[in-house]
């Protein structure tokens, strides 16, 4: 459910997932004047977060209260989930989104790995290099978290884009999908 407003909401008025100071100032300086990058906010359900994600895959709408509860569960794990959004300043709606989560490892001297997920840009906003800026910001967050590498999965058609972002094709992804459940998960 989108709520179109004509005024841009500054970060200081939002309940954010993490401090906006952690987002690369270099990335911020390279954005178009009509776009702002910031952490996901507790009110971004109303700004079209799920609609932008739905360009990737089927995205069910759990309702605003469930979305906010999930936001709060992510925030309860500090230094783990970094979801950023690109906001169109003219509408205060989300134009792009991406996440890096930090996996703590026992290997490499108790290091960590950054996993980039859910990169999506509204088709009406493409051509502004928002995808590139999202990736750059997430890599910066990953590296500043101490990650020794940052990884992602992508479709074959997106390999050239991610190679331009500095990634290299390595190994293979395997997936096993859980059958549809008739009951709630136990954990």
UniProtKB/TrEMBL annotation:
Record keywords, A-Z: Acyltransferase, Transferase
UniProt GO BP: UDP-N-acetylglucosamine biosynthetic process
Reaction catalysed by this enzyme: D-glucosamine 6-phosphate + acetyl-CoA = N-acetyl-D-glucosamine 6-phosphate + CoA + H(+)
Involved pathway(s): Nucleotide-sugar biosynthesis; UDP-N-acetyl-alpha-D-glucosamine biosynthesis; N-acetyl-alpha-D-glucosamine 1-phosphate from alpha-D-glucosamine 6-phosphate (route I): step 1/2
GO MF terms, alphabetically ordered: glucosamine 6-phosphate N-acetyltransferase activity
Domain N-acetyltransferase: 35-187
EC number from the UniProt entry: 2.3.1.4
PANTHER family given in the database record: GLUCOSAMINE 6-PHOSPHATE N-ACETYLTRANSFERASE
Name of this chain's protein: Glucosamine 6-phosphate N-acetyltransferase
Species in which this protein is naturally found: Collybia nuda
Lineage of source species: Eukaryota, Fungi, Dikarya, Basidiomycota, Agaricomycotina
């Amino acid at each position: 459910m989108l709520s179109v407003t004509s005024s841009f909401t500054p970060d200081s008025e939002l309940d954010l997932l993490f401090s906006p100071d952690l987002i690369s100032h270099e990335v911020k300086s390279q954005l178009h004047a009509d776009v702002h990058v910031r952490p996901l906010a507790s009110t971004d359900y109303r700004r079209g977060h799920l609609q932008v994600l739905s360009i990737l895959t089927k995205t069910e709408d759990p309702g605003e209260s469930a979305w906010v509860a999930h936001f709060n569960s992510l925030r309860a794990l500090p230094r783990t989930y970094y979801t950023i959004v690109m906001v169109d300043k003219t509408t205060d709606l989300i134009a792009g989104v991406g996440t890096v989560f930090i996996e703590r490892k026992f290997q490499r001297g108790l290091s960590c790995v950054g996993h980039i997920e859910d990169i999506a840009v509204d088709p009406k906003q493409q051509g502004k290099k928002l995808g590139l800026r999202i990736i750059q910001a997430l890599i910066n967050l990953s590296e500043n978290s101490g990650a020794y590498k940052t990884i992602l999965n992508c479709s074959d058609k997106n390999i050239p884009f991610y190679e331009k972002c500095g990634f290299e094709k390595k190994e293979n992804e395997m997936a096993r999908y859980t059958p549809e459940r008739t009951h709630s998960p136990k954990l």
